[in-house]
Each structure stands twice: as C-alpha cells, then as structure tokens.
Design a protein that fits this description.
4-stranded antiparallel β-sheet, DNA-binding, alpha+beta, 291 residues, 7 helices, 20% strand
Amino acid sequence: MPELAEVDFFRRRWDAGLGGVIHRVDLHPQARVFRGTDARLLERTLTGATLRESFAHGKQMLFAASGGGWLGVHLAMTGDLRVEPEDYAAQRHDHFVLRQPSRALVFTDPRMFGRIRFDVSADGPPEWWRRLPPALLSDAFTAAHVAAFLQRRARSPLKAVLLDQAGFPGVGNWMADEILWQLGWHPLTRTGALSAVQARALRSQARQVARGALRTIGVDWTDPPADTWLIRHRWAAGQHCPRCGTELRREEAAGRTTCWCPACQPADPAFMTTASPRPVGTGHRREKPLA
DNA sequence: ATCTCTGTTCACAA
DNA sequence: GTTGTGAACAGAGA
C-alpha cells in the first residue's frame, strides 16, 4: 500500500502510543514478517518498555523504546499500522500487536511482504537505519548526490531509476508516475539523456511531489488536488489527463504498471531506452505447465 | 476461473 | 559492474 507519505501517515497513527508502556506483545515468531529477526528478543525487550519516539525515512519506519529497543517496520505492498481498543482481538492477518493500557498498536499484512526488524542498542539507531540513503527532503539530497546516482543508472529508463530505493527512497509506483507527469517526461526516457539542468529539475520535482503528498496524504489521507496531480486519474484504464484531456496510457514499464499522458509526455525516439512497454490487462497468460 | 495490485529480492541472461 | 526479465513471496478484490 504505502509510499513515503502513506508511511508517514501510518507512523503518526502509532504515535498515539508514544510515552505509553507496553505491557504485552502478541506475535508468532515463525510468521514470515519476522524473517531475519529475533522475535523472541523483541518480545522480551519490549514487554514492559515504553515507546519513546518514531521516525520515517522513505518507506522505512523506526520506533525507539526504553531499554534500547529499536523496532523497524516496513509495510511493503499490503502492510498497515492501526490503533485499536485495548481489548482488541487480533484478526486473521494481524501479525504483531503491542498492547498498552489504553490501546493496541496493530501491524497487519495479508500478503506478508512487509517486514518487522528489531535491534537492541544503547548507542542509537541500528546500522541498517544509519545506512539509508539521503531522504528526498533532507539537506543531504543534494544536486550533486542526485547527479551521481543518475549517472550510475544512465542506461535505465527514468521510471526504473525513480523506483530505486537507493536513489529515491520512498518513491513508489504512483509517485514515480506523478513526478514524470508533472515534468512532462516519458517514463522510458533514458536517464543518461538528461542534461544537468534536467537532472536538477528531476530532483526538484521529486521533492515537490514528496512535500505535496506529505501535506495531504501524510496528514489526513486526503488526495492532492485532482486538477493538478495525476494521482487521482492513474488507477484505472480509460481515464483522462487532467492537464490536456487526452486519454492516459497504462502499460507495463520497468516491470510495473505505468500511467502517462501520451500528449504531455511524448516519446522522443532519440532519448528512449530500448525496452518497450507492454500492454496491461490484455491477458498475458502464463503457459500452462504440461500435465 | 482469471487477472490485477501503492514492494522487494533473487537467479539468470545479455 | 549494469540492466532486463521472470519468479517468488501470498492474499484480496474485480
């Protein structure tokens, strides 16, 4: 479900539990969402601890607890954080519940693509958190940093590069489409074709989309303005560009469903990658295995 | 029954 | 080393 702004919205939900003691932790250590994590240590350490602080960085979240516990949460595609009453009974896809005297903090993820991490450290956030690349709205997300990343991915299409969490942490499928639509650039433009000026424009537009999303979705889940943003129009086939009225295209690019306006984002053959978009929803059927 | 999906990671090919 | 592809993960909803 979530990208940068949605992640921040979910983080704020759990902020209801900051300053509160955790008197019980409900989890199944074998659940896939705990892969690579010592769930027993998590359970032991957080029971009786107080939730102190929360952080979001791109699609990653980190919750700090008393006693040196650092709880990492990644929601992937279908993860969700909720707050429920203290007597809430966990449902089928609730994999992790932090019980406090007056509420239950619930992690839900039907497909279990998401992941819970846990570290104990008195010296600040765990290594994996400190190694995260510069956040879009941080001072470290400089033009030079972006230029270097774009150079490294010069042969890839812009869509793929925007989805790369090592360069644009927090940007997901809809944000990538939004950034490209607002710039008027085709998703399959070769990244190496950008001029220095265009590279700065890309950085600036990515930051603007992040800021706008955080102001709306990140605060109360409302959509950004539908007449100047693509997001409201990109989900289904047959929608029209809010800028020019042309029917939007929806095809697979860089392995993901991609929506763009063929009029506002024309393909310039001189600057395209060789990859060609594939139609979505027209029955690409897998070969049936030989019985 | 069939296909889609706001994500990531791996193996493999070029 | 980089890039593209497809599969895998696993379920709900159209």
